[in-house]
Design the sequence.
């Protein structure tokens, strides 16, 4: 991880992605399509670069296009 790669909390990551905090919490519980980092026993953080990669990976050119 680059020292300049900002870590975001769940609320900040949700705002960046345009989803709810609950969406990210359910995603972590269900298998984490959105990569996250566990810091300590409870804190969860998201790397900005991972979120950008997730967004790029979701890019589609047609609604019928399969992931």
Sequence:
């Amino acid at each position: 991880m680059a020292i300049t790669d900002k870590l975001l909390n769940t609320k900040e990551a949700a705002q960046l992605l345009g989803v709810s905090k609950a969406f990210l919490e359910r995603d972590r519980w269900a298998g984490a399509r959105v990569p996250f980092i566990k810091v300590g026993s409870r804190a969860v953080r998201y790397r900005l670069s991972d979120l950008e990669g997730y967004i790029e990976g979701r890019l589609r050119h047609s609604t019928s296009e399969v992931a």
User: Anything to note?
Assistant: Strands lie at 7-8, 37-39, 43-47. Residues 5 and 49 are 7 Å apart (CA to CA). The longest strand covers residues 43-47.
